[in-house]
Prior knowledge:
The protein is mainly beta. It has a single domain (about 10-120), classed as Roll (Pnp Oxidase, Chain A), CATH 2.30.110. It has two helices and eleven strands, in the order βββββαβββββαβ. Strands 10-7-6-2-3-11 form a six-stranded mixed beta sheet.
Amino acid sequence: MAHWVFIEEGTYAVEEAFLMTPGYTALALEDPVIEIYLDSAQERRVRGHAMVVNLLMVELLEDHDEIDMLLDLGNEFKYLIKEPMIRSGKVFSPDVKSLMQFMPNGPLQKLSVSEYSDLRSRLSVLGPPS
Length: 130
């Protein structure tokens, strides 16, 4: 699939990012970053990373196999990633965070500001563990 994203190559800080279930339960990602790069076919691809509290991620995944990602890069750059590939640490202590890496399985879905705001307002974000 040619050119999955129409953002110039580079590394970008993400203002706000969430993993979310079809029922709008969500997990906020800390310090998210995406990288736009050229693959071997010279097509743009996306990969990224963020910090996550592993125990909250386990809680999110307990009842849901399908997880999407919502990204706000600022201004009008808002995206939905359907079922990204996710890799994360496996320590489940309540106070441990680890680096989570993600890659889309397909093109990013560009959202308008109002579409993003609507999705964002529906989210029930999991809090930090007690």
